[in-house]
Design a protein that fits this description.
single chain, about 270 residues, 7-stranded mixed sheet, 3-stranded antiparallel sheet, 8 helices
């Protein structure tokens, strides 16, 4: 098999996300039936069906895939140093509520870090791409990607935060005061990373649990746009935590390494 190039992989991942989005919208257009998984989170027919479509697209590459619904079914492949991470429907609660804030997430991880990511919001067609060439935005609502537009992070004297002061962790309000946060920007799913990537906000602190498939694609987009994602010890958030059930520690995503480090240190102090 011919070894795919970086750009051909990006195109393949984008095509897979568009195909999954098309299927998700078909389910979205009719009454939605949800079940509850073992971890207490909801799942719909769209989740498994979208993952199956994505797996079909990615299979010819021969690269292993860590998929949320596959893991839920007990299917965990030998990953190695290079593998895809897939969340076929991030924000299932938003999907069920029909508020449009759900996404398809596909990332490529190499040596523990996401180097390629696509985050696609089926309800709006907003699509964010991050790879070695940079970070990009395009519209896929027609089923075909529009011309890509470069995006990048933006600094602010008083950062905007993508988290709710009233519904988040008890330490969140204190963090907002310390960092002189200007305003909250409320949005669901991995779109939080994407708002930072295109300069609409500067800070996303996470005090509640996430899994690797929730964050890998968003991290790839944000880092490609010039941002940073670090755990509370200040290290870049990494992937392949099989021994922890692929759970992430608390983290902070920010528009710059300096802001990420400052927020991580403050979060550590507040949690102590």
């Amino acid at each position: 098999m011919q070894v795919p190039t970086d750009q051909s992989l990006t195109t393949l991942v984008l095509d897979a996300a568009i195909a999954a989005s098309r299927l998700i919208l078909e389910v979205y257009a009719r009454p939605i039936s949800a079940a509850i998984k073992a971890d207490g989170s909801p799942v719909t027919e769209a989740d498994a069906a979208a993952e199956a479509v994505i797996l079909d697209y990615l299979k010819p590459t021969g690269i292993p895939v860590l998929g949320e619904e596959s893991v839920a079914a007990g299917i965990i492949p030998t990953l190695g140093e290079r593998y895809f991470v897939v969340d076929p429907l991030d924000g299932t609660k938003e999907f069920i509520k029909r508020n449009g804030e759900f996404t398809v997430n596909i990332a490529l991880v190499e040596h523990g870090v996401p180097v390629l990511g696509v985050v696609l919001a089926p309800a709006t067609g907003e699509t964010f791409i991050g790879d070695a060439s940079g970070a990009w935005f395009c519209d896929t609502q027609s089923g075909i990607a529009s011309e890509r537009r470069a995006i990048s992070v933006a600094s602010a004297t008083r950062p905007r935060i993508v988290a709710s002061r009233s519904h988040g962790h008890a330490a969140l309000a204190m963090l907002c005061e310390t960092l002189e946060v200007e305003a909250d920007v409320s949005v669901g799913s991995s779109l939080k990373f994407c708002l930072l990537a295109r300069g609409d906000a500067q800070l996303y602190p996470r005090f509640t649990p996430t899994c690797e498939w929730d964050t890998a694609a968003g991290q790839a987009v944000l880092e490609a746009a010039g941002g940073a994602v670090v755990t509370l010890d200040g290290a870049r958030m990494r992937y392949g935590k099989h021994d922890l059930g692929f759970l992430n520690p608390y983290f902070v995503a920010a528009s710059s390494e300096a802001l990420a480090q400052r927020a991580a240190a403050e979060m550590t102090r507040l949690l102590a």
